């Protein structure tokens, strides 16, 4: 596809990195000439220096023949204007990053009036993920499929876990639950395990099943299944606002540390049910005084990655709180993998993954949108995807053991008319089913891509 990307910050660069690997023709617009030079030198893209809201610049970028325009600058207004010009000029699909809560409250109107294909709010997306984790604190990450009927939950195997030093097959026989261990991360290595794979302490495993069966899985393994009743949030920015809104609606007590007095006044007005504390949330004495030791959960959302990481590590020494931190820099991924920092939110990855999902689902060789969900994991080493099976697909009606799957590809579960099943070798996929795939391959945009001869 012909894709124009306006803005080359964290999200823009992540999109360039991912989409340039998937055989798209990409033109990047950015006002900083040094940034453009760096991108052009490192990726197979064309770069244009200029303002993406300029008609002449967009025309130079080929907007008239483009299939998609993605606007991810730091300005909501510029992003929306870029999309409006692109729609009027090129009639292409448009995606805008919009962060201001004022616009978020009017997003349906904006989408309809400007003809936007998609609007993504990184702060709100992060808050949504954090809220899910606080409702299920044993999980490191929760991804949903089949409109919430199936969940892929990531957790760390503790030293005293019943799962330790047992094969995947033995675990399944002991638990007698329709759940599947689909991914194992051990240090820097990632595995899609077979039945003989042995689970070890400190492995990070991803388990898939229905919400009810996943709840039973956690109970049988003596893991907490009740959501938190209180939380401490450090950093009162937009992500904090979106998260606190949701938590208060759930009946969770919220305490927010914010060092800026004016922002404290804003939050007090916006969130009257929350306790707003005007103090430096990175000050350990302040945290201890406000009950960190007995806190059920602790969410660190300052603008400094290093502070977030260090605060989480400190909290682990004084509290059993569920910990969630936000980290922007991709360069810290490898380091974080070696540290016990709790659950990690990366706005750049969350935003880019949702956009890549849309891009892959736009058009495929059969002319219909198949890709329903896409999650990238473990530094993009693994993808979990959900496909809707169209009529005429070559995977229909064939026992799964006869399908020649690509190496490192697993059919994790099948949703047939709302019923979620873990497939066996004799299972067959039918038209209209949604199928969840876990794979170490990349670039799948239709179900046929799982086949070895494709």
Automatic annotation (TrEMBL):
An example Gene Ontology molecular-function term: potassium ion transmembrane transporter activity
InterPro entries linked: K_uptake_TrkA, NAD(P)-bd_dom_sf, RCK_C, RCK_C_sf, RCK_N, Trk_Ktr_HKT_K-transport
Cellular compartments per GO CC: plasma membrane
Domain RCK C-terminal residue range list: 140-223, 369-453
Keywords: Ion transport, NAD, Potassium, Potassium transport, Transport
SUPFAM superfamilies according to UniProt: NAD(P)-binding Rossmann-fold domains (SSF51735), TrkA C-terminal domain-like (SSF116726)
PROSITE patterns: RCK_C, RCK_N
Domain RCK N-terminal: 1-120
NCBIfam families named among the record's database cross-references: PRK09496.1-5 (NF007033), PRK09496.3-2 (NF007039)
Protein name: Trk system potassium uptake protein TrkA
């Amino acid at each position: 596809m012909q894709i124009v990307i306006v803005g080359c910050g964290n999200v823009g660069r992540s999109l360039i990195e991912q989409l340039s690997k998937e055989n798209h023709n990409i033109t990047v617009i950015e006002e900083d000439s040094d940034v453009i030079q760096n991108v052009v030198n490192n990726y197979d893209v064309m770069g244009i220096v200029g303002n993406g809201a300029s008609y002449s610049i967009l025309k130079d970028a080929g907007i008239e023949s483009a299939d998609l325009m993605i606007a991810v600058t730091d300005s909501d207004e510029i992003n929306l204007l870029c999309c409006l010009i692109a729609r009027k000029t090129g009639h292409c699909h448009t995606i805008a990053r919009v962060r201001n809560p004022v616009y978020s409250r009017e997003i349906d109107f904006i989408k309809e009036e400007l003809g936007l294909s998609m609007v993504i709010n990184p702060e709100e997306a992060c808050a949504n993920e954090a809220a899910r984790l606080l409702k299920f604190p044993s999980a490191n990450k929760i991804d949903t499929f089949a409109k919430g009927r199936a969940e892929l939950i990531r957790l760390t195997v503790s030293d005293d876990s019943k799962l330790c030093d047992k094969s995947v097959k033995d675990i399944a026989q002991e638990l007698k639950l329709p759940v599947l261990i689909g991914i194992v991360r051990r240090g820097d290595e990632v595995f899609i395990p077979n039945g003989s794979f042995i689970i070890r302490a400190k492995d990070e495993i991803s388990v898939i099943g229905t919400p009810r069966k996943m709840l039973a899985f956690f109970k049988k393994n003596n893991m907490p299944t009740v959501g938190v009743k209180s939380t401490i949030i450090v950093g009162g920015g937009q992500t904090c606002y979106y998260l606190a809104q949701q938590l208060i609606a759930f009946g969770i007590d919220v305490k927010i540390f914010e060092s800026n007095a004016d922002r404290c006044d804003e939050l007090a007005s916006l969130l009257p049910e929350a306790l707003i504390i005007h103090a430096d949330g990175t000050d350990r004495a302040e945290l201890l005084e406000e009950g960190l030791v007995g806190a059920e959960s602790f969410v660190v959302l300052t603008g400094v990655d290093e502070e977030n990481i260090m605060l989480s590590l400190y909290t682990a020494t004084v509290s059993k709180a569920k910990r969630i931190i936000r980290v922007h820099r991709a360069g810290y991924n490898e380091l974080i993998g070696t540290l016990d920092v709790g659950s990690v939110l990366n706005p750049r990855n969350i935003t880019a993954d949702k956009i890549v999902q849309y891009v892959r689902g736009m058009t495929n060789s059969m002319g219909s949108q198949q890709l329903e969900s896409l999650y990238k994991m473990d530094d993009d080493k693994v993808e979990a995807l959900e496909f809707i099976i169209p009529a005429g697909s070559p995977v229909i009606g064939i026992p799964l053991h006869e399908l020649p799957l690509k190496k490192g590809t697993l059919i994790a579960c099948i949703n047939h008319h709302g019923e979620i099943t873990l497939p066996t070798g004799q299972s067959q996929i039918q038209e209209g089913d949604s199928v969840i795939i876990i794979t170490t391959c990349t670039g799948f945009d239709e179900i046929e891509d799982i086949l070895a001869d494709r």
